[in-house]
Amino acid sequence: MEKFIVNGGKPLNGTIDVSGMKNAALPIIFGCLLTEDKCVIENLPVINDVATSLEILKQMGFGIKMLGKNSVEIDSTHAVGGSSPAEMVRKMRASYYLMGAELGRYKKAYVAYPGGCDFGVRPIDQHIKGFTAMGASVSIEGGYITTRAEGGRMKGANVYLDVVSVGATMNIMMAAVLADGYTVIENAAREPHIVDLANFLNSMGADVKGAGTDSIRIRGVERLAGGTYAIIPDQIEAGTYMAAVAAAGGQVLIKNVIPKHMDCISVKLREMGVDIEENGDEILIRRSGPLCRANVKTMPYPGFPTDMQPQIVTVLSLAKGTSLVTESVWNSRFKYVDELKRLGARIHVDGKIAIVEGVDRLMGAPVESPDLRAGAALVVAALAAEGETEIGQVQYIERGYEDIVGKLRALGADIRIIDVPDMENEEQSIG
């Protein structure tokens, strides 16, 4: 079992490269199921969720060949629909994209109920609404979701999502690209990774229009071809490093970003007194003075992203005055707050609102990461805190950040990984 040890209180300085976007890579990997040809995916982040996704495909009969650290060839010629390994599917939320991809290619799907980070109820009712509108039957039994196109083929339909759902938007897109006729998704999610998936599908011969707006139109085609596609830079990774500089101070050039994707984050950090300069695919971020309070409300894109909420709360913990952070996307996403309090943060949670009273400093202490983005927030806090912080459960962090320790060390951070005995396993072996 690994832990991170951070000796904080040191400003960050230097240059950092952002990896490919996790939230784009995962649906695109599963989207390779839609063609019987080979796909080469580039700019893949080297993270645990990508490794798990590729292993799922391998066990389904895909040919998986790494062409480099961040590039993979995926051959789905001999893939077997409905054969995904349940124990691996349950490790990650994004495995539900298998449903849309299998429906698109095989007109049926059999997938274990997905897992992932636990921060509240995350139903798949909007996914099911889309599938049924397109002529599929859906049943959930024994921890498995079974979907089948009635009549042997999915049919285009008008689908209005009751809530903006990134996962449902993507899943319906994948089910629709090989369906008969036209599909229109209204109240669709607009996130950058929606656009990236649409661009990937179009590069294979799909006809998807309107991605990035709230109305996506899809004309079904007979087949999709393979090809080569590069994943966009990770908005949340870049935002996390921006938060780290805001909290710890210093000056960092963040490379390989799409500044437009960062606007929702940059606006709030500027409001807090952080200097941000944009130049092409780079962002220069600098913080030398005090932080100012700000109110933040998470919203679907182009609003402030829920995946940046724990990191911004951490920064606001060091700002002068009292800030309000409203979580409007997910329930129970403040589970990390008790861990921040161990470092000296003053935060009171009332339902979906966190009241953050800024403190002069944070102090190092042992903490545990409850999920991916909360774990990243604890790293941000540890970098700013005086003294040593020990962060446990870092496997959550490694699900979504490529070489976070190495990248931060290159900025002058005193952070390292240690291996500690797994006491439960030790006791079992002794017994």
TL;DR?
This protein has two domains: 2-17 and 258-425, Enolpyruvate transferase domain (UDP-n-acetylglucosamine1-carboxyvinyl-transferase, Chain, Alpha-beta prism), CATH 3.65.10.10; 22-220, Alpha-beta prism (UDP-n-acetylglucosamine1-carboxyvinyl-transferase, Chain). Helix content is 32%, strand content 27%. It has helices spanning 22-31, 48-59, 86-89, 97-106, 125-133, 166-176, 192-203, 235-248, 259-271, 309-316, 337-342, 372-384, 395-398, 404-409, 423-430; strands spanning 2-8, 12-17, 38-42, 63-68, 71-75, 108-112, 136-141, 144-149, 158-160, 182-186, 207-209, 215-219, 227-230, 250-255, 275-279, 282-287, 296-297, 322-326, 346-350, 353-357, 366-368, 387-392, 414-419.
Overview of this protein structure:
The protein is α+β, with helices and mostly antiparallel strands and 431 residues long. It folds into 2 domains: 2-17 and 258-425, UDP-n-acetylglucosamine1-carboxyvinyl-transferase, Chain (Alpha-beta prism); 22-220, UDP-n-acetylglucosamine1-carboxyvinyl-transferase, Chain. 32% of the residues lie in helices and 27% in strands. The protein contains 15 helices and 23 strands. A 4-stranded mixed sheet has the order 21-22-1-23. The chain has a 4-stranded mixed sheet with strand order 2-14-16-15, with helices on one face. Strand 4 (63-68) and strand 5 (71-75) form a beta hairpin. Helix 1 runs parallel beside helix 7 (192-203) and helix 10 (309-316) packs parallel to helix 12. The longest helix has 14 residues, at 235-248. The chain is globular, with a radius of gyration of 22 Å. The two termini are 20 Å apart. Mean pLDDT is 94; it is low at 117-121 and 425-431.
